[in-house]
Amino acid sequence: MTEPLLEMKGISKAFAGVRVLKEVSFTLAPGEVHALMGENGAGKSTLIKILGGIYAKDEGRIWVDGRERTIRSPREATQLGIAIIHQELPVVPQLTVMENMFLGREFTYKWRSIRWNRMREESQKYLSQLGVRIDPDQKVGELSVGQQQMVEIAKVLSLQAKVLVLDEPTAALTNREIESLFEVVESLKRHGVGMIYISHRMEEVFRISDRMTVLRDGTFVGTRETGSTDMDQLVQMMVGREIRERFPRRSLRMGGERLQVEGMTRKEKVSDISFTIRGGEILGLAGLMGAGRTEVADLLFGVERLDAGRVSIDGWPVTIRRPIDAIRAGIAYVTENRKEQGLVLSRSVKENLSLPNLGALTSFGILRRGVEKRMTEAQVKQLSVRAADSDQEVGTLSGGNQQKVVIGKWLAARPKVLILDEPTRGVDIGAKAEIYRLMNRLAEEGMAILLISSDLPEVLEMSDRVLVMHEGRISGVFDRDEATQEKVMIAASGGGKLAD
Amino acid sequence: MQTEIKTENLKPGRVQQIGPLVGLGLIILALSLISREFLSITNIFNVLRQISINALLAFGMTFVILTGGIDLSVGSILALSGALSAGMLAGGMDPWLAVLAGLAAGTVMGAGNGVLVAKGKVAPFIATLATMTIFRGLTLVYTEGRPISYDSDTFAMLGKGYFFEIPIPVIWMLVSFVIVYLILKNTPFGRHVYALGGNEEAALLSGVRTDRVKIRVYAVSGLFAALSGIILTARLNSAQPTAGTTYELDAIAAVVLGGTSLAGGKGWVTGTLIGAMIIGVLDNGLNLLNVSSFYQQVVKGAVILLAVLLDRSRKK
Amino acid sequence: MQTEIKTENLKPGRVQQIGPLVGLGLIILALSLISREFLSITNIFNVLRQISINALLAFGMTFVILTGGIDLSVGSILALSGALSAGMLAGGMDPWLAVLAGLAAGTVMGAGNGVLVAKGKVAPFIATLATMTIFRGLTLVYTEGRPISYDSDTFAMLGKGYFFEIPIPVIWMLVSFVIVYLILKNTPFGRHVYALGGNEEAALLSGVRTDRVKIRVYAVSGLFAALSGIILTARLNSAQPTAGTTYELDAIAAVVLGGTSLAGGKGWVTGTLIGAMIIGVLDNGLNLLNVSSFYQQVVKGAVILLAVLLDRSRKK
Amino acid sequence: GCSTESALEQEEKKPDQDVTIGLSISTLNNPFFVTLRDEAKKTAEKEGVELIVADAQNDTAKQINDVEDLMEKNVDLLLINPTDSKAVSTAVESANQSDIPVITIDREAEGGKVVSHIASDNVKGGEMAGEFILNEIGGEGNLVELQGIAGTSAARDRGKGFHEAVDGKKDVKVVASQPAGFDRAEGLKVMENILQSHSDIQAVFAHNDEMALGALQAIRSAGKDILVVGFDATDDAVEAVNKGEMGATIAQKPGEIGKIAVRVAAEAAQGEKVKEFYPVQLELITEK
Ligand SMILES: Nc1ncnc2c1ncn2[C@@H]1O[C@H](COP(=O)(O)OP(=O)(O)OP(=O)(O)O)[C@@H](O)[C@H]1O
Ligand SMILES: Nc1ncnc2c1ncn2[C@@H]1O[C@H](COP(=O)(O)OP(=O)(O)OP(=O)(O)O)[C@@H](O)[C@H]1O
Ligand SMILES: O[C@@H]1[C@H](O)[C@H](O)CO[C@H]1O
Ligand SMILES: [Mg+2]
Ligand SMILES: [Mg+2]
C-alpha cells in the first residue's frame, strides 16, 4: 500500500478519570473507505473528535501526510485537509443553507462584503452533486433532519478535503439519498480522498468499505479487509459474542382495535390519513424524506393540532390538544430528534428516564427518590445503556446510548399506543436487537405500535402491516407477506396506487 | 477547550458545589484578617440579617432562572406588596391578615408575569421589565409618593424581632431555604423546573405542562418578593415607595454567583444562598474597612469578577 | 415544491419586520390623535434627537444580543468615556483628540468585557454587571462625584449642532444605522455574529474564531456607548458622573421590542431602530400629554407590553 | 482627589484620636452630598476626630445596614442623613438601644431619640423659589415644575413648598409638572418635550440644579428666554446664575451643614451639651 494519508498511534483519552480510549491505532490510505466499527459508546466519535481538534488527546501521536501534527482546533483540522460530518449535526438553524455551508470561509469582495451570488452558485453546485433539491436560501432550521444531513454532506464536499470523516451520515437518510451519497463516495475514492466511515448499518458498511477497524470498550480489536470478513465475524469482534437473530420473531396475538385514526388532516402537511392499529400489532410507516410521517406522529401526540380528523383509542374518541392529553389517553411517543425533542441533555439519565413518570413516583407530593433510583437503574440495565451511573448527564452519553434513554423513558408508563419515530437511529446492532425484542414483548402485552422508520429492512421485518406515505397522503398499504422493498419504494415515490 | 467544558459535566454536582463556597471562604478569610470587628458574633448576625432580603428575593429568582427565565420586577413587587400591607395595617386591619394579603398580592403579581411569559409568549426579560415599571408606577399611585407608616408591634416584630437571639428575618431566610431546597430536590414540580430550563420542547413532549410550571415559577418569585417587602416594611417602620429599586440585580447576581446558569436547567439553591452571602459579606466588609463609597463600587465589582474567574480557572 | 418553500421562507422574515412597525404606527397614530403638537416637524426632529442616545447604545447592544450575550455596562461606559473626554477637554486637549480618546477608551472597556466573556468564560450578565459597577465607581473616582464642565464649541457642536436643519446626533444615529445594517447583513463578521448566537458549537466546528467574535462584539458595544457618552456630554455642556444610569435597560428593551431574540441568533438592527423609536415616542408623548409622574410609569410599561403582545397575537 | 481610608490607617488609631464619628449619608451620587461630605471630612481633621462615612446610595434598607455596620465599628456618635425620615427610625432606635447618640442632618428622623438636628427646610426652600418666581414674572404667567425622583422626600417637600407659594394665584398657572429624576440629561429631555406643547412659558422651577441646568440647555437650544430656578447652589448652577443664564438657585449650603454637623457631633461625643436644632439658613442666590 502507498504511504498512509493519516496515521493515529496509541491514542488514549479519559473523561474525568474514565478512560474511553485506550491506545487506539488507526491508519487511512488514499482512496480508501475505512469503516470504524463498534458498539454504542465504544469510542468511535471520541476518536474522531480528537482527529478534528475538538478534544485534546491524553496520549498518542497523529501523522497527516507523513508529518506529525498536533491538532488544537477544528480550524486547524480543516487547514490540514480533514473534514468531518459529525454525528450530532452542528448546524445553525437560523442561517440559510448556503450560509451554513460556507460558515467561517465566506466568499467576499476585497472590501469584506459577502459575494452572495458566488455563495449561492457554489452551494447549488455541491447540493446538485448529491442530487438533492434544497434551496440555498432556505433557513436550515426549516429543513427536516434528513435534509440537514444532506446539507452537512454538501458542506464537507465543498471543503475539498483529503481526509473525510463520515460519522453516521446515513442515520437520517432514506434509500434514495443514501444511493446518491454512495455515488459521491465512489467518485471521491477515485480522486484519492481517504474516508473514515462510521455506521451501524451493516449492509452499508459491507458494501462501501475497503477495510474495517473495530473498537470495543475503547480498545483496538483489529483491522480486517472487508472482502475477507463476513457479518458474523464482524459482530463477533464488535460485541464479543454472537447475535443470534437480527430481527427476533414473536408470537402474534392480535387484540381488538386500539388506535383508530380517521381523516387526519393538517393543512399543507398531511391530508386524509386513516388507519387503525390493533392491540399486539406493529404497524410500519414508510416513506421518503419529508413524506409527512413525523407529521402524523406529531398530530397524534398533540405536538401540532389537527385541522380535521378523529382519533379514538379502544373505541373511545379522544381529543388531543397538547402532549399531556395524548399521554393521558395512553399514547407514548419516541421522537426522531433526540437532541431537540427527546432529551434534556443537561440533566442526568435518571431524571430523563423518570420525567414522564413522576406522577407514579410521587406520594403526598413528595418524590420517592429511592424508588426512582431503583426503577431507573433497572431500566439502564435492561436497555444496556452504557453510563458510569444513572447520575451521568445524558448529554455526555454516546449517541446510541442517548437513543436508548429516549425509548426507556416511555416504558414505565405502560402506554396503550406507542409511536416510535426512527427508534434505532444510530443504535448498534446488539442494542437494535434488544430494542426489537422489547417491541415484540410490548406488542405481546397488547400494546399497539406505530413504527416509523427509514430503515426499510427494519420496517419490513418488524411490521405486521406497512403503510406507505407520499407527499402527505397514504399511497399504499401492504400486509406482511406481500410487502417487499420494491413495492414499498414504488408506493413511496408516488407510483403505486391503493388497491381499494 | 470543548473537552474541558464537557468533562466538568460528568461530575457536575461536586465541582459546582465547591466553587462558590471557596470564593466565599476566601473573602471571609481576607476580611477577618484585615478587620477586627468582622468575625464578631454580633457582626455575623448583623450580616445574616442584612442578606436576608436579598437571599429571599434570590430564592424566588432561582426558580425563575432555572427555567431559563428572569424576573426584573421583584424590586417593584417588593415595594407594592409592602405598601399594600402597610396601607391595610394603617387602615386598621389585623396584622396577620395584612401579611397574608401582602403575600397574596405579590403572588398574584408574579403569576401575572408568568401568564405574560407562558401564554403571551413575551420574552421574560421584556415582560418583567414592563411589569417592573408598571408595579413601581402603581406603588407610587397607591402611596401618592409618600411613605406609609403604620402602628403595629406584631407586624414590626416580623422584621425587627428576635427568636432566641436570632433575628427573625434570618429565621425567615433559613426556613425558606430549607423549603426551597426540598421542593427543588424532592418534588415533581422541582424536576419540571429543571427539565423546562434544560429543554422546553422535550419537557413538553414528556407531558410537562410547561405553561403551568412557568406561571407557578413566577408566582413563587412574586411570593418571595412580597415576603421580602413585608420584612423590609417591618424593619423600616414604614413602606417606602422607592423600596427595592435595583434589587433585582443583586438577586440575579446572587443566583449566578452561586453557580446557577442563566441559560436554565442547571443550578441549585444552596449556591444561591452562598452567592447572597458573598454579596452581603462584601458590602459589610467594605463598610467595616471604611472604604470610600466610590472605591467600594470598584472593589465590589472586582471581587465578584475574581470570585467567578477563580471558580472558572479552578475547574480547568 | 421549491417555490413553495421559498414563499414560506419569506413569510417569517416579513412578519418579523412588520410586527414592531405596526406597534410603532399605532402608538404614533394614537398620540397624534390626542396631542396636536405631536406630529409637528419640530417635534419629530426633537424626538429623533432624543432617541439618538438610546438608539446608538441599542445598536451596539444588538450585536451583543445577537450572539446570545448581554451588556449591562453600557451606561457606565457612557459615563466614564464622557467624563474622560470632558476631563481632557478641560485640560486643554484638542477637541477631536478628546473625542478619539473617549471612543478608544470605550472600545477598550468593551473589549475588556469581551475578554471576560470569551476567555474568562464568565456569563455575560454577571461579567457586565460587575464591570457596570466597576466603571461607575471609576467614573465617580475620576470626577470626584461632580460634573466636569469644559469650554469647547467644536465639541459642544457634536451634540447640539445642526447639519442642514438636521440635529447632529440624528446624523450620528442614521450613519451608524446604515453601517451596522451593512455589517450585519453583508460581512462575514455579521454572519459569524448570527452563527455564534444560533449555535456556538456549530460555529466553532465550522472554524469561526468564536472568542474573537465575542471580544469584538463587546468592543463594538463599548464603542457605541462611548459615542453616546460623547454626544451626551456635548449636549449637556458637561460630563455627569451619574450619566447613563439604567440606560442599559432602555437599550435592551429597544433591541427586544425590535424583534431580536435574547437567546441570540435572530434579529435585525432595523427592528432595534424601531424599538428605540417606540420608547422615545412614548416618553415624548407622555410628556406632551402632561401625564402625572406616577401614572407615566404605569402607562409606559403597559404600552410596551401591549406592543409586544399585539405582535405575538398577530403572528398566530 | 478623594481617597480610600485603607485598612491599615484604620488600625493605627492615633492615641489622641479617641473620638470616632460615623456618618451615614443618603447618597454620594449627587454633588450636593459630595460637598457635604468633603466639608465634614475637613472639619473632622481639624477637630481631630475620626470620621467613617457610609453611602446608602439612596436605598432606605441599605442605610439601615450601613448604620448597623457603623455600630459594629464602635463609633461614639452617629451622624445620619436619612434617605427617608420614617424609614430611618429603625436605625435611630437601634442606636438608642446601644446608647449611641444620633444627630440627624439635612432631613429629620420621625422616630427614636435624636440629640440634635441640623438642616434647612426643603418645604421652605420650595416656597422661596415659588415666591421669587412670582415676583420676577410680575405675578402673571405659565410655570413648569421639574420634579425629582418620585417618592423621595426632597421632591415631595420642595414640590409642596412651591405649590403652596404659587397655587391659587389668579393669573399664574403651572402648565406642566413632570418628573426628571434629579438628573441633568432627563431635565434636558423632559424640558424639550414640554417646550413642544407649550410655547408660552415664563418660568421653570426644578427640584434641583442638575435638572435646572438640563432644562436650561433645552431652553437655549429652542432660542427661548425663560426664567429658570434651581435648588442646591452647586458650582455649575451658581456660575449659570452669575452669567445671567439661570434666574436663581436656593442654596442649602451643604458645606455649612457638614461643618456644623461634625462640630456639634464632636462636642456631643465629649459629653458637652448641644442644642436640639441648628438651623442652616437657606439662601436665595441671584445674579451678583
Ligand atoms: N464529554 C464527555 N464526557 C464524559 N464522557 C464522555 C464524553 N464524551 C463521550 N463520553 C463517553 O465516552 C464513551 C465513548 O463515546 P463515543 O461517543 O465515542 O461513542 P461512539 O463509539 O461514537 O458510540 P455511538 O455509536 O453510540 O455513537 C461513552 O461511554 C461516552 O459516555
Ligand atoms: N418548511 C419547513 N419548515 C419547518 N419545519 C419543517 C419544514 N418542512 C418540514 N419540517 C419539519 O420537518 C419534520 C419532518 O417532516 P415530515 O413529517 O414532513 O417528514 P418525514 O416523513 O418524517 O421525513 P423525515 O425522514 O425527513 O423525518 C417535521 O417535524 C416537519 O414539521
Ligand atoms: O438636598 C438634596 C439635594 O437637593 C439633591 O439634589 C436631592 O436630594 C436632596 O435631599
Ligand atoms: Mg458516536
Ligand atoms: Mg421523520
Given as residue ranges, the uncertain stretches of chain B (5+ residues, pLDDT < 50) are 1-15
Q: Which chains have the largest interface? A: B-C, 45 and 46 residues
Tertiary shape of chain D: elongated
- Please give the oligomerization state of what you see: heterotetramer
Distance separating the two termini of chain D:
30 Å
Average pLDDT level of chain B: 89
Count helical runs of chain D.
10
What structural class results from the helix and strand content of chain B? mainly alpha
Helix content of chain B: over 70%
What's the short version?
The complex is a heterotetramer, with 1 copy of chain A (500 residues), 2 copies of chain B (316 residues) and 1 copy of chain D (288 residues). Chain A has helices at 44-51, 74-79, 97-101, 116-129, 145-158, 175-190, 202-208, 231-239, 293-301, 323-329, 338-342, 349-354, 369-382, 399-411, 429-444, 456-462, 485-492, and strands at residues 6-15, 18-28, 33-37, 59-64, 67-69, 82-85, 163-167, 194-198, 211-216, 219-225, 257-266, 270-278, 282-287, 308-313, 316-318, 331-334, 362-363, 366-367, 417-421, 448-452, 465-470, 473-479. Chain A is an alpha/beta fold and 500 residues long.
Q: In words, what does this structure look like?
A:
The complex is a heterotetramer, with 1 copy of chain A (500 residues), 2 copies of chain B (316 residues) and 1 copy of chain D (288 residues). Chain A has 500 residues and is an alpha/beta fold. Chain A folds into 2 domains: 234 residues, Rossmann fold; 236 residues, P-loop containing nucleotide triphosphate hydrolases (Rossmann fold), CATH 3.40.50. Helices cover 33% and strands 25% of the residues of chain A. In chain A, the strands form 5 sheets. Chain A has a 6-stranded mixed beta sheet with strand order 6-7-8-3-9-10, sandwiched between helices. In chain A, helix 4 packs across helix 5. Chain B is an all-alpha fold and 316 residues long. Chain B has a two-stranded antiparallel ribbon. Chain B has a two-stranded antiparallel sheet with strand order 2-3. In chain B, a hairpin with a 2-residue loop joins strand 2 and strand 3. The longest helix of chain B has 27 residues. Chain D has 288 residues and is an alpha/beta fold. Chain D has 10 helices and 12 strands. In chain D, helix 2 runs parallel beside helix 10 and helix 5 packs parallel to helix 6. At the B-D interface, helix 3, helix 6, helix 11, helix 13 and helix 14 of B face helix 1, strand 2 and helix 3 of D. The complex binds adenosine-5'-triphosphate (ATP) (2 copies), beta-D-ribopyranose (RIP) and magnesium ion (2 copies). The site of one adenosine-5'-triphosphate has 14 residues of chain A, from helix 5 and helix 9. Chains B, C: It comes from Paludifilum halophilum. Chains B, C: It is a multi-pass membrane protein. Chains B, C: Keywords: Cell membrane, Membrane, Transmembrane, Transmembrane helix.
